[in-house]
């Protein structure tokens, strides 16, 4: 891991929502790295802070949310020179962060309909995205738009340029969004559940497309999903999130073969195994996800954990413990060490 060039390093990122009902610590001390050209998966159940992490990287957090701490170190390439900058030092509306959004870091979402304007044709929207990045005529921008549709393997690109978003299927719209993301040749693509709204066949095609475009463009991908099957297809390494924190980090093979955190294990037990006859009903994780306003003290998974140790797990947040260079876990089963008390969970 140390020899790998890091494109993005997130350090102790904290993003909280200050709502009328209280503070939601949506992202509360998240750290991970994304190597150049590789795919890091972010895995966890709904509401654990995956999307907020993705948005915070580009400072797309709106009120009542606020990034309250941390660093987002990004290796920029400017005029052939590389420099590492903390994106959070740029204001959310600064010229620099606007330059980075779409150009150096692009984002795609679960539902492309929310990012496409229903009133404009695919051609107009793609050409406009091209014009943001390149000073070319409208006609050349349209040509480039057609090339991009070709790249994402949409047939009859010319014809498609004249269509409106609602005339396309979900899979086609997601291809258009990927084409749009590619206009600036980003070094990092943040993909937030990009195939969750699609049927399995279309999903498989989009994942295959993303892999081949990644190879062609050499971009890194932050792949956010709740789906273990999709993670297995896409990611080289994974961070598992639970209630705003990373509970386990590892490479993809270890995730499936030697998971350590009881939460990760429970997630894995909740999926059917190919080639294994299912004995009895599928395991589901005990208990409910706690209210985000009332995150359990200590390890936030403790009320649902089958290996809960009273007086230990419900006291302080466990520290990140490295089992190997590329495998860490926050769990008292592996180390009794608690995190420094900067997290506010101690009294
Ligand atoms: N605008 C908001 N206002 C208040 N709470 C929010 C807002 N956006 C997200 N949250 C809360 O932040 C937490 C993490 O949300 P999110 O990152 O969207 O989860 P995930 O993507 O993992 O499903 C959730 O508890 C969610 O309710
Ligand atoms: Mg989400």
Topology, pairings included?
Elements: E1 6-19, E2 22-35, E3 39-43, H1 50-57, E4 65-78, E5 81-86, H2 95-100, E6 105-108, H3 122-133, H4 138-151, H5 157-160, H6 170-182, E7 188-192, H7 200-217, E8 220-225, H8 228-234, E9 237-242, E10 245-251, H9 252-257, H10 262-269, E11 321-324, E12 327-329
Helix pairs in contact: 3-4, 4-6, 6-7
Adenosine-5'-diphosphate is lined by residues 17, 19, 24, 26, 44, 46-52, 64-65, 292.
How would you summarize what this structure contains?
The protein is an alpha/beta fold and 347 residues long.
Explained architecture:
- The protein is of the alpha/beta class.
- It contains 10 helices and 12 strands.
- It has a domain of 65 residues.
- The protein is 28% helix and 25% strand.
- Strand 7, helix 7 and strand 8 form a beta-alpha-beta unit.
- Helix 3 packs across helix 4.
- Magnesium ion binds next to helix 1.
Beta-strand percentage range: 25-35%
> Helix/strand/pairing class, anyone?
alpha/beta
Average pLDDT, to the nearest integer?
Answer: 92
| Helix count, DSSP H or I runs of 4 or more residues | 10
Compressed to H and E, one letter per element, the order equals EEEHEEHEHHHHEHEHEEHHEE
In which range does the helix fraction lie? 25-40%
Separation, N- and C-terminal Cα atoms: 36 Å
> What does the radius of gyration come to?
21 Å
Q: Which hetero ligands occur in this complex?
A: adenosine-5'-diphosphate, magnesium ion
Number of strands: 12
Shape estimate = globular
- Please give the oligomerization state of what you see: single chain
Arrangement of strands in the largest sheet: 6-7-8-3-9-10-12-11
């Amino acid at each position: 891991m140390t020899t790998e060039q890091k494109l993005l390093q997130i350090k102790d990122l904290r993003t909280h929502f200050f709502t009328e009902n209280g503070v939601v610590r949506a992202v509360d001390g998240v750290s991970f790295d994304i190597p150049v050209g590789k795919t890091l998966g972010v895995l966890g159940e709904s509401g654990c802070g995956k999307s907020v992490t993705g948005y915070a990287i580009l400072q797309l957090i709106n009120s009542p949310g606020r990034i309250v701490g941390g660093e987002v170190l990004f290796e920029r390439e400017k005029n052939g020179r590389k420099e590492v900058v903390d994106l959070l030092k740029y204001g959310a509306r600064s010229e620099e962060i606007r330059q980075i959004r779409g150009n150096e870091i692009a984002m795609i979402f679960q539902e492309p309909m929310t990012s496409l304007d229903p009133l404009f044709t695919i051609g107009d929207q793609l050409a406009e995205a091209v014009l943001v990045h390149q000073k070319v005529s409208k006609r050349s921008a349209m040509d480039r738009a057609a090339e991009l549709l070709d790249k994402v393997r949409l047939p009859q690109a010319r014809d498609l340029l004249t269509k409106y978003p609602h005339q396309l299927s979900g899979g086609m719209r997601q291809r258009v969004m990927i084409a749009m993301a590619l206009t600036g040749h980003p070094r990092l693509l943040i993909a937030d559940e990009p195939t969750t709204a699609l049927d399995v066949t279309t999903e498989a095609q989009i994942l295959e497309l993303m892999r081949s475009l990644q190879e062609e463009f050499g971009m890194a991908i932050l792949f956010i999903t709740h789906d273990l099957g999709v993670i297995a297809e896409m990611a080289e390494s994974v961070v598992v999130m639970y209630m705003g924190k990373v509970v386990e980090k590892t490479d993809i093979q270890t995730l499936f073969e030697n998971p350590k955190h009881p939460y990760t294990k429970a997630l894995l037990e909740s999926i059917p195994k190919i080639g294994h006859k299912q004995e009895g009903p599928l395991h589901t994780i005990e208990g409910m996800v706690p209210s985000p306003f009332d995150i359990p003290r200590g390890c936030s998974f403790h009320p649902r954990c089958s290996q809960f140790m009273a007086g230990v797990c419900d006291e302080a947040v466990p520290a990140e413990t490295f089992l190997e260079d590329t495998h860490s876990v926050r769990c008292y089963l592996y180390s009794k060490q608690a995190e420094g008390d900067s997290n506010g969970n101690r009294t």
